[in-house]
């Protein structure tokens, strides 16, 4: 796609051509001369209607949008609702992906022309066509701020990641609050190291005692929480770092763990402490990720069991000595309790620092993948790796290299036109031009090629791809330096930058690959590093940083990726939205491809896929060899990848990244504090830059696991035994039918669902609940009329035999089939089917509020009350006699047992996984649409609407 003409001396790069001085000479890879990339795609119109699964309300609607036919419904929904600009319903609103891509790419091409990036106008046109092709074919994507801002009247902010700085003055601390608020308002995240602030054990010049950094964290936390709830694009995300030698380090380590204990006490006292609950706001430090910055000196003291000194901030003198192992233990204990603090390895980070003469790297962005200078930012882009796997199971190395060239060129151009939230961030970013190219779909690529995620072969392939990506990125950066100049801070950091490049190349030389695919990628990576070092020696480098691995939450969904960032597959069964409404659970398309690669025949593959669809895992699948189970191991489920399997994968790619990796190492609920200590210790030994852990079910502020503890298990078994004993003694009478009287009150409802009209008549026992339902939707004698009559009779008989209405509601609500869509009922604006509408209407008419609320069914008035922050229950005066639901049957004495909750229908992949696991996964509900989110690196992403909990 791109070839280069150097501005000064030396031969053109391998396979390149010379252009005019100061410009890139481009060649086509994806596109065809004389054919616009849009003309090679089949486009179709779609309607985007997104609902909140909690109450059925329509959260977004735009009809007639235009997308390529191969884009999924989910990707279409997310791009339309998140990235299209202009007020909905006005002519200014974007309605086609073409408009979105034109808006963004147009700014890149215009800036590239103006600043001498291209040799000729023809080269600029080729760059434009290649970029548009790659974007509409989901081969890569820029990070979200690019889609939000570029080409609009808003500031052209392109960065998602920011690092701030705080000095030991009140003015600096207040400026930190302000800068963080500005960044949060724009929907991005920021990180900061508070270690310069004097500890609570040190004196002020006035003679008083300093407050310490933890006290100032309270104010910043409250600010983040306020701005988050004020309607920012995404939840405020922030990272707070403290050095391990800070005298207040123990208070910092334990501050969130103490709050977690407080949450549990308040929850047990009846307060609403779920994520987004009205009482959780009273708890502190919940809007930040905390990380301890540890040194090699400290980690060696942990290994040897020695003492470690805590140092005064102003003088550097040791004011207290602590037992290193005890302090390390407290870190692991706190992380065991509440997942914080994470850990950052200071000496490793700064050993790979390209600009140490300017300053040390002290902090990171909220997800820990961007690590560079204070008061700087980084714009990200991620490549869809699965797009380079050919049908013959080989990796398209040539196109991958050319795409990296294209993306790095575009990303560097963006710094030239970008706006920044503060002058300090603008100056540092323009001077060092930090970029963050990365990838998504690694987990899917490994599975598709028959590699287990936790295997030597899988790690070798991942390492080779990452090495090739970073080598190509820095080689292109060196070419750009020869055309438009190196970054401003390069001269003073040239020796250090070139040393880091040699470290990357040395790590590549030590990489061991085992199979032809990885060997071919590794061979090209070696050639790219050789060329990179040579060009860098002559030209310098355009960018101080080039690569990292971000969560790729929203943009991963935009590219229809099965897996995000460096993550393995979440589960083998996915939740897929269908054109025209509705959804279904499907087995990942990667699975049959992997089975074919492993040598299974079509009929064997079909049987295995059917087994997976039913069970959610491969254990016991017919004909599947046990040695192949590991290929299908996932992040969750029956065969979850071990914690150290995640750590080893991170270690395999870290030497080939300029920055870090956004990833949380998940541990089971049964994990011990010692297990977390080992993860943190091994992360240091294996050369990681940062690491975060999460123990299943450790936090209260989100839906908890339904798995019961040992005591509860014993109680449950005891209750079951008591029931069994009594059932042996007491004879249970058969249920009796209670018919309705000849004259009974009834209500007839006329309704429309997706354009289909119908009538429902519900008859009641006088003052005693519904007992009969009649439905009419077609002409007498038609098949549909007959089916609806039979269905009505079956439901009516069930009600008269004592089946509670809420049982029918729980079974039929959310059932999906055509006709579906908009209704003419103000209480139920969207219905997934006629059955969904009918039983929602019956629930609203005949079920008490408490039972409807448990099923997520609310009237328009109740939803309005919720939006005002009021309790909808206050709208109702409960009268148990009036609310009797069906003909009662005579009670038989038996022990009271808890009533099983209706099993909700899945609305996301993680909920589909839960249905197979038999328990609830630790993941928050999306604050926008109510769908349960799924992990994406260190954050969470909503499959329903694309919202994220972090800065990806």
Automatic annotation (TrEMBL):
GO molecular function, one term: cobalamin binding
Reaction(s) catalysed (UniProt annotation): a 2'-deoxyribonucleoside 5'-diphosphate + [thioredoxin]-disulfide + H2O = a ribonucleoside 5'-diphosphate + [thioredoxin]-dithiol
Ranges where the TSCPD domain occurs: 741-845
Keyword field contains Endoplasmic reticulum: no
Ribonucleotide reductase class II vitamin B12-dependent N-terminal domain segment(s): 48-138
Purpose of the protein: Catalyzes the reduction of ribonucleotides to deoxyribonucleotides. May function to provide a pool of deoxyribonucleotide precursors for DNA repair during oxygen limitation and/or for immediate growth after restoration of oxygen.
Protein family (similarity comment): Belongs to the ribonucleoside diphosphate reductase class-2 family.
Protein name: Vitamin B12-dependent ribonucleotide reductase
Organism: Thermopolyspora flexuosa
